[in-house]
């Protein structure tokens, strides 16, 4: 198989692990990013039910969220297996400054702004944040200004 054929027959999807908050995070992202939540599989009733810690049977074993033509996947892991995300960011490329500002501030609610959303030499707006679920984001806006 040629590399070009392989590239057209696969997709890369970010997969996030949460400490019991996957469903809440996906609902939040769906609201902020006009996403659509896909099927949510829980530990209860699955072959992995016995591996879920006590009291966590209702947590997400696997879930997906479609944002535009991209799919974000995630799951809840046992508290002793959870590690805070680091060493990456989910990067959103947004065309309008109004959308960039709205999305940046929505994602930042209850989280932490790392770099304020501002005009830069390469973008009409760029900013970085860590949301309330500990997920790092970069917002980059190429720059079509829109009047409110």
Fold and architecture overview:
By secondary structure, this protein is of the alpha/beta class. It contains three helices and eight strands. A four-stranded mixed beta sheet has the order 1-4-3-2, covered by helices on one side. Helix 2 (22-33) runs antiparallel to helix 3. The longest helix is centred in the N-terminal third of the chain and has 12 residues, at 22-33. It is globular, with a radius of gyration of 17 Å. The mean pLDDT is 91.
| Distance linking N and C termini | 51 Å
Could you say what the CATH architecture of the largest domain is? 2-Layer Sandwich
CATH topology of the largest domain: Signal recognition particle alu RNA binding heterodimer, srp9/1
* Beta content: 35-45%
> For this structure, what is the CATH class of the largest domain?
Alpha Beta
The count of DSSP E runs of length 2 or more, i.e. the number of strands, is: 8
State the major sheet: 4 strands, mixed
Question: Which structural class do you get from the secondary structure elements?
Answer: alpha/beta
* Radius of gyration from the alpha-carbon trace, in angstroms: 17 Å
- pLDDT average, as an integer? 91
């Amino acid at each position: 198989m040629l590399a070009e054929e392989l590239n057209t027959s696969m997709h890369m999807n970010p997969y996030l692990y949460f400490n019991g908050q996957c469903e809440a995070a996906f609902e939040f992202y769906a609201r902020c990013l006009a996403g659509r939540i896909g099927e949510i599989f829980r530990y209860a009733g699955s072959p992995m039910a016995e591996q879920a810690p006590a009291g966590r049977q209702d947590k997400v074993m696997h879930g997906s969220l479609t944002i535009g033509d991209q799919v974000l996947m995630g799951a809840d892991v046992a508290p002793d297996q959870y590690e805070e995300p680091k060493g990456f960011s989910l990067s959103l490329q947004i065309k309008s400054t109004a959308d960039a500002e709205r999305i940046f501030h929505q994602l930042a609610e209850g989280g932490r702004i790392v770099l304020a959303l501002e005009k830069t030499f390469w973008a009409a707006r760029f900013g970085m944040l860590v949301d309330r679920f500990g997920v790092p984001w970069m917002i980059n806006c190429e720059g079509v200004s829109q009047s409110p």
